[in-house]
Amino acid sequence: MKKSILFLLLIAAISVGAQKYVPFPTENAQWNMHYRTSESGLVFESIILNYFLQGDTLINSKLYKKLYLKTGTSESPLMKLKGAIREENKRIYLIDFAVWGYMSQVRPLSSGTKKCMKQVIQNNGYGTEYLLYDFNKNQVGDTLYKYQYGFGKIIAIDSVLVQNSYRKRYKIYDNEYVVEGIGSVNQGLFGALTPLPACMTNFEWKLVSFSLNNDCAYKSSEYKDCVTTARWDDTDYLKTGTQWFYGEKDYTFFPSNNFIDNYFSIKITGDTIVNGRNCKVMQHMRNKPMCFGYDQTVSIYQSNDTVYFYNTTSHKFSTLYVYYAQPGDSWEINYPTSKVIATIDSLRYKQTLNKVLKYVSYTMYNPDGSIIQKYNSSIIEGIGDMRYYFNSNINYLNLCDEPVDYTGLRCYINPDLGTYHVPGTLDCAYVTEISKQNYNALKVNLNSSGILTVEGDLSTQYCTFELLDLKGSVILKTTVNASLNTVNLSQYDKGLYLYRISANGALLKAGKIVKY
Length: 516
Prior knowledge:
The chain is mainly β. The chain has three domains: about 15-220, no CATH class; about 245-420, no CATH class; about 435-515, Sandwich (Immunoglobulin-like). It contains five helices and 34 strands. The strands form seven sheets. It has an eight-stranded antiparallel β-sheet with strand order 6-5-4-3-2-1-13-14, with no helix packed on it. Strands 20-19-18-17-16-15-26-27 form an eight-stranded antiparallel β-sheet, with no helix packed on it. The longest helix has 17 residues, at about 1-20. The N and C termini lie far apart (about 90 Å).
């Protein structure tokens, strides 16, 4: 038995040592890296950076592959030349065209960080060629790379499956590995060289995945997929079962200027796949008769701290929220019936759901630059808009001309995080008390002769009965009570009608009837 184990270990060691060297790619390679900065528990940026090789360039008579950085959204990508890479005798060299200066494009640097960065660049020289990795050094104890914090000494060697073949993997220290043809699988392509950790605190730069010819060849086990910053241990604000309650003042079934305090809800009911994307099913529910109510769904997903929803008209996903946006930043929202621009006005942080979350105020603009005043609102990181999650009709259009004032978020309920109740608002599912007590106490029946009967406890009070057409116009208004509880509708045409019964300005009953 011992001989068998020894033989297997020997074979494994020989196979690792005899593996064919895998050179660095020369085209169509992409390193997807998660860039994140934080301070006192607050995440300021969390974004995916896509570095890719494309095309050749000559520098000092040597041939390099051009290194580009792609940021922005899938709809509006930004690509900038950031450096150049070449390989010679198993040594990987990098010329830096401001790879280190990425931070200034994301968030304004502090004066201390600027000074530190400037000094590092002066010390090393702009456009200096650096030795990234020396794969001739491939024994335990050898130094694979050298950088300002110490030496990249190899402490172990094994192999890892990349696509359909195994490659050598070098362990440098805990959780830091370098793979042939990829580089560091912790800090990314040039993480070992960057001076950023020396110039700022709470900096993180991690490899999410490595792609070759648009195929995800290697992915970190910390992340859910190859192209997003979503980790397995992230807070899931869109977890199945999560529910939002938004309040409204409903004038639909009331005479004069009276209203009922009502609500509608949004709930994550499950998962779905749309256009190859793993999405959540977001269900909008509003329990009202006829065209005043609806039960509609929207497909939604979050990626790289950006929330997207599926536009059923364009059949494409549109950006809804950009949680890492800073004051002055804007993004375009393509609704099924309109296009608007959201611009961040101000930013603050607040303790919510036992977390420190970002609150931003924003303004909606038309594409022509005019302000949509009624959409001035605020957004809570992860929870969404305080006024209404979408601030627009997503995939339905009400048939009724509905007199309703939306009063904003009441509650956000998450199975893992608990309940966030907006201070000063009504309870989550609050409806005016008299309506809750009496709404189902009355029954309305219409016989074949056109006689409508109101059954139930009307006591001796006088109630107002109103008949409406589908446009919401009142075509009949009369009084009913305990002794006079019928209404003659024989003179009206066959068809569908709405009705409402109220007393002292409070809605008792509303619904639809069909006259045959």
